[in-house]
UniProtKB/TrEMBL annotation:
Protein name, UniProt field: Alpha/beta fold hydrolase
Protein's organism: Gordonia aquimaris
PANTHER family in alphabetical order: FATTY ACID SYNTHASE, NONRIBOSOMAL PEPTIDE SYNTHETASE
GO biological process, one term: secondary metabolite biosynthetic process
One GO cellular component term: cytoplasm
Cofactor(s) essential for the protein: pantetheine 4'-phosphate
Alphabetically ordered keywords of this record: Hydrolase, Phosphopantetheine, Phosphoprotein
Length: 844
């Protein structure tokens, strides 16, 4: 018996065969195939009578629920083509679709209220329109693509042949059914006799999703990669769904890490499918990973072409290229879209008839076939850009960005006017929030220099449009960068080359700012160490706050080089920004330079000057303070050198918060007034917590803290002078030797210059030991405790540090990322609010 050739005929055949089975279920209700068929036919006749213009589209407001599915089936059974309207579409966009299509609009309730009719409904032909899909329109206005009755039958056949969909499957559709891929799932499920399980993620979120899928015994699940990452990121490794045999994603590139994450969480023994397509093509390709198939690193190929989709890779002349070579993807099929609604000119440009009811589409996408016949997508042809004479595909750069451990998502755009690449990178703050310079440096290990984006924008997440795709229009512009002014003279030329190397840039102008270009404290320390070694001077990173450009820094370097004046005492106070009024003094964390707080100082909205304070000896030679109290006494001297009398405004990040509180307590005891101390994510070490909670435990506390420093890192040398390996591979004597070495280095911290990373490690461990040994003197005022959301300290412990109120404020990011882009803006707002409150109180 021949398979029905139209969407409507196949629906009725399947619904008759499985009349008693559940066709669609959501948390709010369900409907059998038989009931859905009868109601769809009844409402279809009513619609045919109400909309008597043959071929006029009917637009339906749909949610991911049973009533919406029934409404879509009703339009199909009326003989009219259907448009699925997303309720979350902007009003302007929805009106544009209605005006362009000339559609009559209904919602499920108004459709159900139509008077019944016995008017006959004509049977459609296989080439008649069935569903109109409007493009996502991330750039420009959406356009409607017409899909024929036979086109959806082909889609359903793909669902059976590639995904194995059929009766008995319980198909969890986690995509809104108004999306193109959501319509695909609806058709592939219902035209194969499966039960659709609808969960509206946008309204219900993923909370409770895993439990619902388990209770419904879902056998397949279908979503986007971004939704998958968000959902699985909240699950434990023992969250397997026992009945799940298949999980597919579509709409975005898939990475090997996505497949691995699925196997580790919800589906340890099922099949993962990367499934791709477009509004013009329908299904393009499927790539299935059974439980034993090896998972590639990086991007996953889109796979084997779908049914009746003949895919060619062609050169500029339209000739086929060899396997492995890159070219434009051309698709030939009898089941492509019929064209653009009411736009014959655009249809003729994109779709070329080739006879026998088939057409050819030049997709504008670049791709290649590998030796196994797998199709790889390599981005848009018109996205390619020539940099330094080399053709660069943004998709390849995106793949390298997504391979980085801190990256959640990334998109790379091409500025064709300036022949430059721009990368927007969403990062996971629980792993690390890199600076733009770190990103470029990491890319340099895998990409050619001309492939590294000049501009890198670090974000919390990428904006998406109503279709779930990256909204490129909403991506923030990178910081304005003027046309680089070439360096003048040998010093500026040397500096520009050094900054290019450290910041991962191909060009640095003489008036460009080191921090704005993406330099962080590590990049600054590396640069200063190189300068001091080359010129035999003793500059420090604080100079970058006064002279942040190549031209300004070169003047200071020339002056220092000419006079050869060595700094008599190591610098601990650095002015981070100019201003008027009483200053804000911020103490940096252990092992951190004062300049590490530059992003925070720049993000503050206060007109005050801001000073950063760092540990003595971390730059320049000078024995480091060995206790919080000693560091607090030095802080007081630094503060009074700028501001002889109060009231004082002190704050500190991490270790610096303890120093700031101690200094404020001592200033208050001497009769000076200190305003509320701003504490930025200072974490109370468990040993300190035990000691201040129970003073009788002091003896045991000293035994616990003295033998071993806070951390023993792989940066320490062993007796051979070579870098030591990871702690887990060391023998006991080697660990003991490193502990001894670290204790010696901490005792002499600041007196001997060490490599930058080891220097910072020593000061970090010294700071941790100082915190553990600290006995706080309570500050009589309030503490403004600005904490990262990852901080789980017991707030009650802060009563040992303040006799006033402790006012906590939680900000985004973790301990490190809260003072780095992009999270630093929220931290700065919290600091600014605290300062503003005090200004207003003073005014009263």
């Amino acid at each position: 018996m021949a398979e029905p050739a139209t969407t409507v005929a196949r629906w009725r055949a399947v619904a008759g065969r499985y009349a008693d089975a559940i066709a669609v279920r959501s948390p709010d209700g369900s409907l059998t195939y038989g009931a859905a068929r009868d109601r769809a036919d009844e409402r279809g006749r009513a619609l045919a009578a109400a909309v008597d213009e043959p071929g006029r589209p009917i637009a339906v407001d749909v949610e991911s629920d049973v009533d919406s599915v029934l409404a879509v089936l009703s339009v199909l059974c009326s003989g009219h083509p259907v448009i699925l309207l997303d309720p979350l579409l902007p009003a302007e966009r929805r009106e544009h679709i209605l005006a362009l299509s000339g559609a009559r609009r209904f919602d499920p309730a108004s459709m159900a209220a139509l008077p019944p009719s016995d008017a006959p409904v004509p049977e459609p032909d296989p080439i008649d329109p069935s569903i109109l899909i409007f493009t996502s329109g991330s750039t420009g206005k959406p356009k409607g693509l017409i899909h024929s009755q036979r086109g959806w039958v082909n889609q359903a056949t793909d669902g059976r042949e590639f995904l194995g969909l059929g009766p008995g499957d319980r198909m969890a559709v986690l995509l809104p059914i108004s999306f193109g891929a959501g319509v695909d799932c609806l058709v592939m499920g219902l035209l194969n006799g499966a039960t659709l399980l609808l969960w509206d993620v946008r309204r219900r979120t993923t909370t409770g999703l895993r439990d619902w899928l388990c209770a419904e015994a879902a056998t397949t699940a279908h979503c986007t990669p971004s939704l998958l990452r968000s959902w699985l990121g909240d699950l434990d490794t023992d969250a397997a769904l026992p009945e799940l045999r298949l999980l597919s994603t579509c709409g975005e590139p898939v990475r090997g890490a996505d497949v691995t994450r699925v196997r580790r969480t919800v589906m340890p023994s099922g099949t993962f499918c990367s499934w791709s397509g477009s509004s013009e093509i329908g299904n393009l390709a499927f790539n299935l990973f059974g439980p034993d198939r090896a998972v590639p690193d990086g991007a996953v190929a889109v796979g084997i072409p779908a049914g009746d989709k003949h895919v060619r890779i062609v050169d500029d002349n339209g000739d086929d290229v060899d396997a492995g070579d890159v070219g434009e993807i051309v698709v030939e099929s009898g089941h492509l879209a019929s064209g653009y609604h009411n736009d014959p000119e655009l249809t003729a440009q994109r779709f070329e008839p080739i006879g026998d009811g088939r057409s050819r589409l030049r997709t504008g996408d670049l791709g290649r076939f590998d030796d196994s016949g797998m199709l790889h997508l390599l981005g848009r042809r018109d996205d390619a850009i020539k940099v330094r004479g080399y053709l660069v595909e943004p998709a390849e750069v995106e793949t390298a960005l997504r391979a980085m451990p801190w990256t959640v998502d990334a998109v790379v755009s091409a500025n064709t006017e300036r022949t430059q690449l721009i990368a927007h990178v969403a990062v996971d703050p629980s792993k690390w929030t890199p600076s733009p310079a770190e990103v470029r440096t990491a890319l340099a290990t895998t990409l050619a220099p001309w492939m590294i984006p000049r501009d890198v924008v670090i974000m919390t997440d990428l904006p998406r449009n109503e279709r779930g795709k990256v909204d490129r229009v909403a991506l923030p512009e990178p910081a304005a960068r003027p046309k680089p002014d070439p360096p003048r003279g040998p010093t500026e030329s040397m500096l520009a080359l050094l900054w290019q190397e450290i910041l991962g840039l191909d060009q640095v102008g003489r008036q460009e700012d080191f921090i704005t270009l993406g330099g962080d404290s590590l990049a600054a320390a590396t640069m200063i160490a190189d300068i001091n070694h080359r010129f035999q001077v003793e500059l420090d990173t604080g100079l970058l706050t006064q002279a942040p450009t190549v031209a300004e820094f070169a003047q200071h370097l020339d002056a220092a080089n000419e006079s050869r004046e060595k700094t008599a005492t190591p610098r601990t106070l650095v002015r981070l920004r100019e201003g008027v009024g009483s200053p804000l003094f911020l103490v940096a964390g252990a092992g951190s330079l004062a300049t590490s707080l530059t992003p925070l100082a720049r993000a503050l909205a206060t007109p005050r000057p801001v000073y950063g304070v760092q540990a003595r000896g971390i730059e320049g030679r000078g024995r480091a303070d060995q206790s919080i109290r000693a560091a607090a006494r030095r802080l007081i001297r630094d503060v009074r050198s700028v501001q002889p009398r109060g009231p004082y405004l002190l704050g500190g990040y991490s270790w610096g918060g303890f120093v700031a509180i101690e200094a404020a307590a001592r200033l208050s005891a001497s009769g000076e007034h200190c305003e509320s101390v701003i504490v930025l994510d200072s974490i109370i070490d468990p040993i300190l917590a035990a000691a201040i909670s129970d003073p009788k435990r002091r003896r045991r506390w000293r035994v616990a803290v003295d033998p071993a420093p806070a951390t023993v890192t792989g940066a320490l040398p062993d007796r051979s002078g070579k870098p030591s390996v990871g702690v887990e591979t060391r023998s006991r004597w080697q660990i003991a030797w490193n502990v001894v070495v670290m204790n010696v280095l901490m005792s002499a911290a600041g007196l001997v210059r060490l490599p930058t990373t080891l220097q910072w490690t020593v000061f970090f461990d010294l700071g941790t030991r100082m915190i553990r040994r600290h006995r706080p003197v309570p500050f009589p005022g309030d503490i403004m405790l600005i904490r990262s959301r990852s901080n789980t300290d017991d707030l009650s412990l802060w009563r040992h540090f303040s006799l006033g109120a402790v006012r906590p404020v939680d900000v985004s990011g973790d301990h490190h990322s809260m003072v780095r882009t992009p999270y630093v803006s929220e931290t700065a707002k919290a600091v600014g609010t605290a300062i503003g409150e005090r200004v207003q109180e003073g005014a009263r």
